[in-house]
Amino acid sequence: MKIYDKDYDKVINGVVAIGSITYKDAIDKLVPLISKTDFQRKLQDKRFYQKLERDIEKGCVMPTITLAFVNNNIDSNSKIEDILNYFKENVSNSFVLDGIQRLNTLSRVFENNKLDENRSLYFNIIFSDSVDKLLYRMITLNNGQKPMTPRHQVEMLMANAYNFEELGIEIQTEKDRAEKIKINSFSKSDIVQAYLAYMANSPMIDNKKIIEEKMDELIVSKIIANEPIDERASFKDVIIAIAKFKESSKSLKWLKQTNNLVGFAVGMKYSHIEIGKLSVDEFEHKIEIFDKAFSDFNPSKIKLGKMRRELSFEYFKNYSKLGELDQYELLEYFSDFTNE
Amino acid sequence: MNKRYEYKETISKLGDLYPNLCIDSSNPLLNIFRITSGSINLKDSYSEKNYKLRQNYLKFPYEENKRISKKSIINNFSDEISLQDLNNYFAKAKSNIKFYESIEIEILKCTIALNENRILESFFYLYRILEGISYSIPLIYVSKKTEYNKSYKHLATFFSDKNGELAFFKTFISEIFGKEDFYQSTIDIDFNCIDDEELKKVYYQLYYEKINEKRITNSVEDELIQISFIGFYELLIELRNRFFHNLKGTWQDNFESNKLLYPDIFFKPIINHGINWISIIIFEIIKVDFEKLKM
Questions:
Q1: What is the mean pLDDT of residues A116-123?
Q2: What is the mean pLDDT of the segment spanning B124-146?
Q3: Which residue numbers of A have CB closer than 8 Å to B's CBs?
Q4: Average pLDDT, chain B
Q5: Would you say B229 and B277 are in contact if contact means Cβ atoms under 8 Å apart?
Q6: Is A166 exposed, middle or buried (0-12, 13-18, 19+ CB in 10 A)?
Q7: pLDDT class of A97 with cuts at 50, 70, 90
Q8: What are the residues facing A122 on neighbouring strands?
Q9: In Å, what is the CA distance from A264 to each residue of A238, B181, B213?
Q10: Which of B58, B220, B287 is opposite residue A44, by nearest beta carbon?
Q11: Quick check: ipTM above 0.90?
């Protein structure tokens, strides 16, 4: 057991410390606390945590949990050693403010004998003299908060992690576009969609007939279920490829169509090496074949968008095979594929 | 179609431009679409009561229409489709009229009962719809497929299950819609619509016991059971079997009436989802109809 540092929270008038404990000790000392926390969220069904279970087995670092004590034995004058000693002696009187499901998951991995017991679980401890204040902290910080939607998370990460201009493409938000559309730029929401689809490994990630909350849930479950296809592939490949192929105005126009773009992006996950090697002219030629086959394929209007997206995905996913076909062979493939 | 219930168009001037989308066009396909999309009013001439149907059961999950306009109609289709397209679709899609007529009245009774808070009655009609469509819809679906060879393969798969019509229907749903978003999504059965805390616990437990564990994707004790799309269908059948039967000699655990003193409350957490489930499936079939028209 270790305590690394401490600080004082002036709003809830309590000491907050940061520490770690081995998985072994967590199983022995923290897991038994779970049933005590009556006002915490009820135990959830385990399905949702299966992915975390697998990740723990593989050796992920578990996100920090929060423990709490309701008393005034530790105050602003206490030293780190005092906190450590107090915690060691009184751990059975603490309770889990945030992280019940994570501890539960941990103990399931333990029961299956798959836990590396020497690894560390990191935690915060809050010492507060009132349950009300703890509850307040729980509500304002940890729980009761609506999680960020996957769309929102991708948007945030994209804005911070990618320098699109450097990679060679320009992106405009809806707001920018309302003022003045730059001909060569992509719409941000399309790129976000492409990224989400890429992560979910599925081109079908929007569906206006399914309300957003459910759709987000579905995307999350697809992302969670998704095992890496090719460790070397990254969404950056998609951006770099777009930046290259957009030199052809035909290709640019094609890629700016949301359904094409999303299908292309997810397909890249499988074929980034082959497609990365294509020249600007070769790519233009391939999408001409695609479009000819698609227009002869003549899907009914009621499914047009969906089909375009699925077939664009299918085409680039199996590029090494389908890239060889001429428009008639491709047309035949499309009708077989959609009629199965 | 029927003399007792009289539909009333809620979208003004709809009939001027798009007569086939207007409720006066006496097309059972359209009527089903308008009822399940929650975009019409109606009057019961017997009780003299008026109803405003406003739940859109074609969204997943269902949601309430705040305002009714032409958008309430077009929003149920993909962006490429215009009102004019729809007007043509409804004008031309005329097959299986008898079948759609028989379903229409059941859906109507089902939603009216729900509007009156007679939930058990509503569930009863819901189940009748389920039985009514479970055999016909797979056949209609297959008959609309253009390729004979593929149809045969489809039919062979459906019939591979020898456990009767409802199991046949289940195979059909999984085979045909398995990749659709609604199929892969989940349904939240929320018990917070039960005000009485004691009943809420008891009913949560009753439901939980009746659901195959592998169909539950998430649950919060006494409050919520999240279940897969196909698991929900199994649940509907299970609830009906356990509730409407009372044979004691069988191995199944039927519901005892003393546990179910409030059937209208018992079925409350699932009734809207049930109508939602069935409406989505029927709507998919209507869309296959349109697809075949190739416009």
A1: 95
A2: 87
A3: 41-45, 47-48, 204, 207-211, 214-215, 217-218, 221, 298, 300-306, 339-340
A4: 89
A5: yes
A6: exposed
A7: confident
A8: A20
A9: 8, 20, 38
A10: B220
A11: no
